[in-house]
Amino acid sequence: MIIDGRKAAAAALDRRAFLFGGTAALGALGLGGCVTQDGMSLAEAKKLYGPVDDKKFAIPATDPSKVDPKYWRRTVRYESKEAPGTIIVDPGNYYVYRIEGDGNATRYGANVGRDGFRWSGDAYVGRKSEWATWTPPPEMIKRQPEAAKYARGMPGGLDNPLGARTLHLYQNGRYTLYTIYASLDEESIGSGITSGCVGLLTQDMIDLYDQTPVKTKVVVLPA
């Protein structure tokens, strides 16, 4: 399935308003062809975040000009005692790190839980899903009655809030209902807008997903 830019934008807005309650978005940055202070040009970022011909759905390109360049994927220095492969979520700075070892990490920009929905602690990836079915929890249905039509599950697809890839977080053998998921909404990155889940740009999420086996440790820092 291929969707044009207007349909993709409308789908992102509809999904975001439904899942996040219409929280205001970041404005577009209009960066042109400039090279950022970290050395990546917008042209290079557009290649990094280009369209993906996935097995089930054609994933549209992400527009990196709508994302602060500090949230573009890159390798950074990050000292940690955690083992390589560990995922560290830093909600206070809207980053997710994958520890690579030797003091390095891959850093991704993220959206995180809004006030009142944030949490911290250790978890692990209990299962992984491609184009997961999304089922709103009863608490969400109480807050947003319109979600009741998906009480039996919303099939995977471009309009599904969980997106193309999902890491489901567990603690002590039980699903926490929190996830790290793929977002098509560029303007959500760098915001606290979710009900506690953590969203990465779809291309970033695919990159993280492909390198993350089940049982991977996830550390969520205090905001």
From TrEMBL:
CDD domains: YkuD_like. Keywords: Acyltransferase, Cell shape, Cell wall biogenesis/degradation, Glycosyltransferase, Hydrolase, Peptidoglycan synthesis, Transferase. One of its GO terms (molecular function) is acyltransferase activity. It comes from the Bacteria. Gene3D superfamilies: L,D-transpeptidase catalytic domain-like (2.40.440.10). Its EC number is 2.3.2.-. Residues 85-221 form the L,D-TPase catalytic domain. Pathway: Cell wall biogenesis; peptidoglycan biosynthesis. PROSITE patterns: LD_TPASE (PS52029), PROKAR_LIPOPROTEIN (PS51257), TAT (PS51318). PANTHER family: L,D-TRANSPEPTIDASE, L,D-TRANSPEPTIDASE ERFK_SRFK-RELATED. Belongs to the YkuD family. This is L,D-transpeptidase. It comes from Bosea massiliensis.
